[in-house]
Specification:
The chain is 46% helix and 17% strand. With 271 residues, it is α/β, with parallel strands linked by helices. It has a 7-stranded mixed β-sheet, with helices on both faces. 28% of the residues are buried.
């Protein structure tokens, strides 16, 4: 069975993106598989929050994320932060489909510069009620100190909230000399520079250190490799990677891509 269903993503494809995805899949097919695994993890956080009765989901730096459609529940309100050009593009493309109006409250601007609480409350968010914040695929492009400040602000101003986010370790950031197990990842970075013209700037963080400084309580912490193992048997991932040997050969970089669910720390040291 699929990790998830997406009936909307195709609307964002064009000739340029399709050509570059084909090029990427020739030598870096594992990277294309990383995205569905990551998506499944954050989908699971949203579904669990809904099952717990949480009625407010905030997606920070949402990009082309269509969870408000894919995981739509009329009793749950989604909110999104991103730049105007991104949100306007997404809504305009989705408007070409035979679907109802996009069911999310959109907040346009640089979320690192906005007063998040004020912006959310202006569109109907209740800071006194529980909420789930999703911050996916962003932190590795944000200065680590800014990441700490934003996490601290969210957990202080929305004390009943949970936040799910990802980050990379020093090994991927380039803070240390590349190892053999990460050769594939650095080749991928070179490919992105060559084909897209953008040099990735991987900002690293240590989740446990961040938890002590912010502070927050770690509810779950899994590497992408952990998530692959979690989904492997049900989804036939060995076959996707060309057999068990191919699957295990990809684990080097996956062990350095972390996914965390956190809540406000109780009194005492963060865990």
């Amino acid at each position: 069975r699929p990790l998830y269903y997406d009936a909307f993503g195709h609307v964002f494809l064009n000739e340029w993106t399709e050509n570059h995805m084909k090029l990427l899949s020739q030598d870096f097919g594992e990277f294309l598989f990383e995205m569905p695994i990551r998506t499944a993890f954050y989908d699971a956080q949203v579904k669990q929050a809904m099952a717990e009765g949480i009625k407010q989901i905030v997606i920070i730096g949402s990009g082309l994320d269509c969870r408000p459609l894919r995981l739509h529940d009329p009793s749950v309100q989604f909110f999104e932060f991103d730049q105007s050009v991104m949100l306007d593009y997404k809504v305009s493309k989705l408007a070409t489909l035979p679907i109802p109006r996009y069911p999310s409250k959109l907040i346009r601007g640089d979320y690192l510069q906005l007063d998040m609480k004020r912006e959310l409350q202006q569109v109907g968010f209740d800071a006194g009620l529980p909420a789930l914040f999703i911050w996916e695929g962003n932190s590795m492009y944000v200065d680590p100190q800014q990441s700490r400040t934003m996490l601290r602000t969210i957990l202080q101003e929305f004390p009943h909230s949970k936040i799910a986010f990802d980050c990379v370790t020093d090994a991927i950031s380039g803070a240390h000399p590349p190892t053999a197990e990460l050769k594939w990842f650095y080749e991928l970075s070179s490919f992105i520079v060559q084909e897209v013209g953008v040099a990735p700037t991987w900002q690293a963080c240590d989740v446990h250190e961040m938890a002590r400084e912010v502070p927050f309580k770690i509810v779950e912490l899994s590497s992408l490799w952990d998530l692959c193992l979690r989904y492997r048997d049900d989804q036939g991932l060995d076959e996707t990677f060309g057999g068990r040997a191919g699957f295990e050969a990809t684990q080097g970089w996956m062990k350095h891509y972390m996914h965390c669910l956190a809540t406000r720390a109780a009194s005492g040291p963060a865990t």
